[in-house]
């Protein structure tokens, strides 16, 4: 026991010393010189060191990471201007490029790995960085997670600068602020906070800045990982940040008074604060006529309730309350279940697990194979299960309705949480019948009421109650009735129209 404690203490000491070495390098290593830079870049195969003679017999050193820069523009932007320039200053030679003065080695390495070329004038011991980032990345394409028939077709990419451009084109105002942060001691992921000054509640901006400053982690590869550190209720299955790859959704949210976080190398932005009801809103709600949009939104709420309660109701009625079933329906159920070896609970549980396996398998397969898998799993295996006596026809129909209904929820994270709610209600219904479903529903509502999104109530505007915000809650009211921003967001500017003309 003593040896284990001692080994553990030694290991922690070694880790601490290793971290200290990473954070605070020695004085020799922190000195800005070519030797210290070469030592830092040892065993990095794509690090390049070039030496070129300028027209006035001056020697300029070029240092860059080959895979991070745009090599096609290297000659045109840097080498040719320096070769043909007789001026004394590097900055005067590179008039078409922005140059950044480098004072310390840490800054030199930071600029180097962000896609800059370091220029070193050894005669004057001057260091400069010239941004020449490799523009590799995919083109702007249609969103695959939030598809709509009408409306804008562009979506975010992995390039954060392009994503800011897509938003600025829609909001060409100086009040749109962008503040940059860096997250991850290893990944150095750029995060940009966007909000409209004069509209967004300053408390939202302050809260999100405090949360960002508290993050201490090494690697961020996706927006969901950033959201996990910003959320207060990390054990909840309900997302407290909206993730979207649509610039029109982000723009509309900013206009309402929300904040947005753009994360580099991921096409999904984070929007907050959100409520539970935002998870059922689609971009098409603000494109269709308000009556149609309201009908479709109501359908989503109904389908969500249907998807989580239909199977538990089947189990509750067939297990505890079969006397409530009409005699004709009961005869059909008895005929359907007479040869089954499982109880209603195990029959439903196995089918729901099987459906989740099919969903996950179809996501992991290529598109065409996934469609084939869905047809085989949904029709062939389902029919075979009925004929083999493992499931009843009635349950197969209910599972099909429940699964299709769950796909109407526009938020993908909410769709993934749906089966867990369904299984919780299923277990409660098998134990306590209809009372179990009511008990589970009350517990879920209480849990939703306890959640928050950057300190704002998650179940607003129902609790706390904001009557005017109901114009865009269960229905999408006409635009001429939505002349004010949601009160629950506490915007600095409530009215959405000019008071003076």
From TrEMBL:
Signal sequence residues: none
Membrane-spanning intervals of the chain: 298-319, 339-358, 392-413, 420-446
One GO term of the biological process aspect: spore germination
Location of this chain's protein in the cell: Cell membrane; Membrane
Protein's membrane topology: Multi-pass membrane protein
Keyword Zinc-finger: no
Entry GO terms, CC: plasma membrane
Compositionally biased residues, Basic and acidic residues: 1-19
A Pfam short name: GerA
Record key words, sorted: Membrane, Transmembrane, Transmembrane helix
Region (Disordered) residue spans: 1-29
Family: Belongs to the GerABKA family.
Protein name: Spore germination protein
Native organism: Paenalkalicoccus suaedae
């Amino acid at each position: 026991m003593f040896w284990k404690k001692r080994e553990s203490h030694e290991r922690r000491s070694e880790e601490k010393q290793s971290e200290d070495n990473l954070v605070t390098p020695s004085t020799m290593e922190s000195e800005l010189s070519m030797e210290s830079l070469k030592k830092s870049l040892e065993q990095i195969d794509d690090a390049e060191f070039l030496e070129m003679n300028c027209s006035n017999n001056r020697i300029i050193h070029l240092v860059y990471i080959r895979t991070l820069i745009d090599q096609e523009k290297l000659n045109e932007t840097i080498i040719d201007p320096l070769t043909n320039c007789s001026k004394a200053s590097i900055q005067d030679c590179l008039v078409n490029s922005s140059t950044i003065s480098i004072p310390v080695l840490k800054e030199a390495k930071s600029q180097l790995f962000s896609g800059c070329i370091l220029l070193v004038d050894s005669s004057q011991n001057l260091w400069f960085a010239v941004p020449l980032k490799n523009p590799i990345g995919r083109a702007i394409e249609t969103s695959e997670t939030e598809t709509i028939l009408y409306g804008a077709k562009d979506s975010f990419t992995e390039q954060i600068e392009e994503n800011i451009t897509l938003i600025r084109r829609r909001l060409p105002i100086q009040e749109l602020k962008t503040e940059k942060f860096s997250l991850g001691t290893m990944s150095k992921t750029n995060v940009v906070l966007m909000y409209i000054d004069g509209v967004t509640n300053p408390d939202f901006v302050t809260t999100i800045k405090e949360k960002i400053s508290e993050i201490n982690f090494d690697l961020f590869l996706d927006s969901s990982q950033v959201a996990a550190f910003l959320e207060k209720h990390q054990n909840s299955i309900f997302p407290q940040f909206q993730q979207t790859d649509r610039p029109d959704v982000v723009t509309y949210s900013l206009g309402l008074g929300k904040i947005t976080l753009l994360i580099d190398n991921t096409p999904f932005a984070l929007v907050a604060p959100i409520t539970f009801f935002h998870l059922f809103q689609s971009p098409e709600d603000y494109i269709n006529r308000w009556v149609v949009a309201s009908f479709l939104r109501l359908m989503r709420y109904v389908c969500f309730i249907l998807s989580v309660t239909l199977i538990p109701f089947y189990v509750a009625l067939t297990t505890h309350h079969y006397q409530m079933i009409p005699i004709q329906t009961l005869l059909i159920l008895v005929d359907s279940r007479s040869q089954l070896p499982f109880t209603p609970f195990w029959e439903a549980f196995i089918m729901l697990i099987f459906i989740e396996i099919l969903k996950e398998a179809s996501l992991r397969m290529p598109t065409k194979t996934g469609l084939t898998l869905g047809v085989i799993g949904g029709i062939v295996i389902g029919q075979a299960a009925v004929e083999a006596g493992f499931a009843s026809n009635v349950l197969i129909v209910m599972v099909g309705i429940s699964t299709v209904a769950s796909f109407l929820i526009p938020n993908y994270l909410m769709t993934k949480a749906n089966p867990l709610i369904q299984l919780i209600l299923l277990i409660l219904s098998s134990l306590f019948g209809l009372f179990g479903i009511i008990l589970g529903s009350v517990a879920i509502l209480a849990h939703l009421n306890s959640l928050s999104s950057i300190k704002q109530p998650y179940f607003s505007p129902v609790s706390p109650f904001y009557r005017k915000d109901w114009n865009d809650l269960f229905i999408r009211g006409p635009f001429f009735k939505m002349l004010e921003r949601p009160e629950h967001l506490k915007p600095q500017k409530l009215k959405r129209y000019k008071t003076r003309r």
